[in-house]
From TrEMBL:
Protein's UniProt keywords contain Signal: yes
Protein name: NodB homology domain-containing protein
GO BP of this protein: carbohydrate metabolic process; cell wall organization
Cofactor(s) demanded: Co(2+)
GO cellular component, one term: side of membrane
Species annotation: Rhizoctonia solani
Membrane topology of this protein: Lipid-anchor; GPI-anchor
Amino acid sequence: MLQCIQTFYLRALKYLAHAGIHPHSPESSRMRTTPFVLVSTLFVSCTHALVSPPNGHEARAAARVYTTCTQPKTLAITFDDGPNTYTKTIVDTLDKAGGKATFFFNGKNYNCIYDTTNADRAKYAFDRGHQVASHTWAHLHLPTLSDAQIKSEFQRTNDAIKKITGAVPAFVRPPFGEHNTNVQNIAGSFGQSLVTWDLDSQDWNGASVTQIEATYKSRIDSNPNGILTLNHEVYAGSAQQVLPWVINYAKTKGYKLVTVAECVGAQPYLSKGSPSSRDSSWVC
């Protein structure tokens, strides 16, 4: 910053010299407005250059990382890795119970989000008031990627969700829960927050329905202020057996079944508009 200002100061002196005016002469005093305006303009330019980030992203703070619910007696049931076979089952089950889930969708992990069936599943959840969020494009280990690759993982998923639903998600769950300062900074440049969890169902690790229910029961019985969960919609047991049990048990303990945005008191989307018509760009 100092070097930048010094450069612009020297330019102002050159301006005076070119005009034949010594900087401390009476003429300089009478004409001080002109060089002052010049220096002021250059200073503003320097400051703008200093704070403006590359690649067209607005300068923002590093992304906030949510690990638990902050609103009292809330349970955020979340499902990763969709849209998939059980998306609509999950939506319908929660709707009947008066609750909502959050879906962290990939672009291309188990399948392609743009496939007609999957796009319909994503929009089905969104249209019924469930939260749709990003799980990045290809479920890669973000801290191992270059900046350009991380940005692509974010941007491609945002674009897909926006085309399908009309909304740009405000939340991203990094695959495997992995993130570092660089990932946070890039997420922040998109205006998005990161979300992990404080209850891992372990369905991804082969836990049985009985084991998962025991995990939930133990946590709910400890009566925490809020619970932010990790489940995967690709497993039948999680969608068809565990979910109904958790809904019933949590409600008997006074928990509200809410979205991640509701459980942390934030907005679910950066923007909302109309979905796009399917065209040749809807490919993975």
